[in-house]
Amino acid sequence: MHIVTATDFQDWRDTARRFLWAEVPPESLRFNRIDGQPSLFDGGGVNALPQPLGSVKRNAVPRPFLSLAETVSFHRDSGRWNLLYRILWRLTHGEPNLLEITTDDDMHRMATMEKAVRRDSHKMKAFVRFRKVDRDGVEHYIAWHRPDHRIVKRVAPFFARRFKAMHWTILTPSESVVWDQKTLQYGSGVARSEAPDSDELEELWLTYYGSIFNPARIKTSMMKSEMPVKHWPTLPETKIIDDLLEDAPRRVQEMIERNEGFQRTATDLIQSQPELSQRLDGVRELAQQCQVCDLFRESTQTVFGVGPTTAKLVIVGEQPGDSEDLAGIPFVGPAGQLLNDALQQAGIDRSSVYVTNVVKHFKHTTTVTPLGKKRLHAKPNAREIRCCKPWLEAELDHLSEASVIVCLGATAAKALIDPGFNVTRQRGQVVSTERCNQTIATWHPAAILRTPDKALRLQKLQQFSSDLALAKKRLE
Amino acid sequence: MSRDVQQKLEILADAAKYDASCSSSGSKSTRAGSQIGSTEGMGICHSYTPDGRCVSLLKILLTNYCIFDCQYCVNRVSSDTPRARFTVGEVVQLTMDFYKRNYVEGLFLSSGIIQNSDYTMEQLTQVAKDLRQKHRFGGYIHLKTIPGANEKLIEEAGMWADRLSVNIELPTELDLKQLAPEKKKPEITQAMHGIQEKIEETKSDRNAGYKPPSFAPAGQSTQMIVGATATSDDAILATADELYTAHELRRVYYSAYSPIPHADAALPGKSPPLIREHRLYQADWLLRFYGFDVDEIVVREDRNLDLDIDPKLAWALAHREYFPIDVNRATREQLLRIPGIGARNVKRMLSIRRHHALRTEDLKKMRVVWKRTKSFVITADHNPSLGDLDRQDLRQLVTPKPKQLTLFDAFGEALKGEF
To answer: Does this entry carry the keyword Iron (chain B) (predicted)?
Structure first.
């Protein structure tokens, strides 16, 4: 019986090769348990090597075996060297296809070890957490990790490739490695207390971890199988897992309860009375009852569109203002006056035009002035616009002869042309939309009136007029 | 990092958590000249959250402001969810800081649409460009492209990113019309086509011996929301199949519609149909790696997958005439159709049987799901369960006990190449 040791894969390979050449069967060779000791054959021990038998055919060892064996060499099991030698022997003594027979007992054991080392290496790549420390103005990143096997030398080159321009150190209970941006230096094991225990960025990392977790889907067993609990002490994020789980049911409940749809939509209202909704007048009547969003509370009435159902031109504004709210008719205040003048100038008879707004209720804030209370227009938000849109759709459905739609201002243009519409850049162009193949957007008359700079105001006014003239031209 | 960044991170990571994809695999080699960061083919999951999902990438939105109004999306313009916007510099810094501590494998950056598609796309690209150029970052970058963005912008994004994705969003054009009226199928598929063409062009230049700049080396993927509309599984799979064949996508992610805060009342306010999502992933796997055709996977009359059993078993039960299969004689294609046997085990079986006949014991040692497999196979020795093939109650015999599943079981099993 020969008793030998092997320190690492290269050492085992050299030793095993010589015994193989000497035809020493696995039963007569034992790699003993002392890892990390010099081999018997270093220095003076060489004489103890058996002499190769001259007549032996040196069977080629399949290459895949060498790479498998190298991986297995990082396993902690002290029986690994003997197992590898036995497989090597069988491969070269009548069983050249052994590697393919994965159900063989030796092969199965080797595969299990190989898998364990690969998994452990993968987990090391994943779960090493560096902590930044400052050493005389130089950044160092230090990690403490606890692998199952002696894999530091196997994995360190990966970290050197990945964190090339960093000074880093990985400490484990039995080995350690330092990278100085040029070479890897291996050392002995270190206790956890030697490693830094915090990093300025950890709070941010926990914030991320907590936010990316979806409380609507819990699967802790999956988490534990992929992120074994033994690694938890070195992973900062695991501190908040209990809290996240405890809070999850409440968060899901809140997610479900906090829906913001409108239980009753304008569409429901329209569909509820089919005989009324067949006529534009009927739709107008229904709209008076609309309480889908909250805007009806503060306003006097629903301001629906006006004009003939045979209108060829449709003008869509944003929302009724103070005067419109009181009168119940769109565009009767100062902005309406400006619109009327411009229409006249363009040679369009307002009574032939259908004029309406995207939102049918007046939205405002109230301020108290020395002259009394004043209602100031407030911009409708996207939810209010969406909630009112079925009314606009219903109006347009009834205006079957419309051939040009003019959108006044961004709200109308966004609702009918494109949610990204920019009035400053895109006004005055004739574009085709789902509703109408000649849709034009221009300034809202109220926006013109509110422009403080006189020259700019005049310019906008001119553009407004020419856009209406363009609409008129397109009608013909 | 300031308190401000922390608050933004909370909002913008939260907003990204509904996106199913997180994979960081596919880029085989690190970009030349990289100082920090590498990609080596296999992605790494750096952490797992209690929902069983892996954290591989820093997955955030550049902003959750959005001018669109897709009803299934928490970031739609009409939702009153809290809003935030990162600067390009903040995302770059955050990525580098997280990466250097080995928290993540790279960045997955998506965004709500602000101003317009081109502007948003430019901002996303700028993040990737700064990471690559200013910081010599070699880690993984996945950019979500913005529908409707200019082709030139996508082209530039592909130079800096490892993977590009365009979300198909919903399985059919009708679904889009219903829930995402601003998104148009032709626009989406056109964007995918543009990316595919550029990937192919790069590949053929490389084959011809040129050294073209890298373009999305990890390919493109997409995400589809399932369960928000009534569309059946066979329509979903048909869309997926079309994406795989016509646009050569690497992955289609199925994301069960999950309740979102601030949801529209029109959508189901309930927990996501996780089992359905899991079955779709299994079916997807059959399409890509098991030689199944899209029109044979769904066997039920209602055109949905069976929720109780996996689609391969469902197919086998519906096609008993195909069985039993003799594991020592069958072709690879036939072996792949046996329930309980994965692609990796098929490979093992083919090599072992060159040396000795496969027996029941061999299959058990390979850890095939014997309870399912046994009724469908002829082995070299006697297999007493073979008689079950003719039993009326075979379905009950082979149906696994019910257990709760999540999407990420599918990932785990997918990685092993079997289910």
So the answer is: yes
Q: Which of B113, B272, B355 sits opposite A100 (nearest CB)?
A: B355
Question: Is the same domain home to A176 and A113?
Answer: no
Residue of chain B whose Cα is closest to the Cα of A105: B365
Q: Which of B4, B49, B270, B368 to mutate to test the interface with A (most CBs of A within 10 A)?
A: B49
Please name the residue of chain A whose CA is at the shortest distance from the CA of residue B6: A204
**Domain contains A58:** yes
- A257 assigned to some structural domain: no
Residue from A219, A256, A386 whose CB has the most chain B CBs within 10 Å, to mutate: A219
Task: Say if A249 falls within a structural domain.
Answer: no
Instruction: Return d(Cα B154, Cα B377) in angstroms, integer.
Output: 50
Same domain, A149 and A282: no
B303 Cβ contact list (under 8 Å, min separation 6) = B232, B233, B234, B235
Q: Which two tokens stand for residue A418?
A: 């494109």
CB A378 within 8 A of CB A364: yes
* Contact list, B351 vs chain A (CB under 8 Å): 100, 102
What is the ipTM for the molecules in this complex?
0.87
Question: How many angstroms away from the CA of A335 is the closest CA of chain B?
Answer: 27
CA B224, distance to chain mean position in Å, is 9
Q: Do A112 and A132 sit in the same domain of this protein?
A: no
Same-domain check for residues A171 and A295: no
pLDDT digits (tens, 9 = 90+) for A404-458: 999 999 999 988 998 888 999 999 999 999 889 999 999 999 999 999 999 999 9
Instruction: State how far Cα B158 lies from the chain centre.
Output: 19
Beta-carbon separation of A103 and B361 below 8 A: yes
0.90 surpassed by pTM: no
- Rounded-to-integer distance, Cα A449 and Cα A57, Å: 102
B77 contacts on A by Cβ (under 8 Å): 382, 419
By Cβ distance, the residue of A125, A212, A245 closest to B13 is: A212
Could you tell me if residue A239 is inside a domain? Answer: no
Last residue of a domain, one of A164, A197, A230: A197
The domain of A159 spans 128-197
Q: Does residue A79 share a domain with residue A155?
A: no
Of the candidates A134, A66, A74, A122, which has an alpha carbon nearest to the alpha carbon of residue A99? A66
In angstroms, the separation between the Cα of residue B110 and the nearest Cα of chain A is 14
